[in-house]
Predict the structure.
Amino acid sequence: MSTADIKKNAEAKMAKSVEALKGELQKIRTGRAHPGILDQVSVDYYGSMVPISQVANVTLLDARTISVQPWEKGMGAKIEKAIRESDLGLNPSAQGDLIRVPMPPLTEERRRDLTKVVRNAGEDAKVAVRNLRRDANEQAKKLLKDKEIGEDDERRSLDDVQKLTDRVIAEIDKLISAKEAEIMAV
């Protein structure tokens, strides 16, 4: 293993941490409708629990309403029940085959709570990135100890990993502040 491999490996893992954070932030509900909100809701489909997106079309009707169009006639009631029983606080209403899911407006207190959740998710992502930095630095120090690289290469590797970490943490901060602004926008 070389210092380039260590950096490439750390970079790939840090990118996965950022992607995980983006996925986590998508689940956090803002005042606006987003089809991804229903991704974590599962519905009973012939004895197995599957995401709603696998049994219905999930689209936006307008900025505050999600529409769910089941692919099978009998699934409408099950989907409506699954959405109502989820912890999202949504109240769907069926209109023939179409299920409308209006997004209730957020209160000021709820918005503040959601920004705390966003900050915690961001902090968790930063901790994961810092742990990856530590692992990469330990690998570089091990290579130095095993005399596979010189001290200059080790120092350069540590600097590269630190620059990478700084860049990724700045990206995480940018994602967090954008999501907070989105939540606090009325």
Summary: The beta strands are 42-45, 48-51, 56-62, 65-70, 93-95, 98-102. The two ends are 52 Å apart (CA to CA). The helical segments are 3-27, 75-85, 108-145, 151-184.
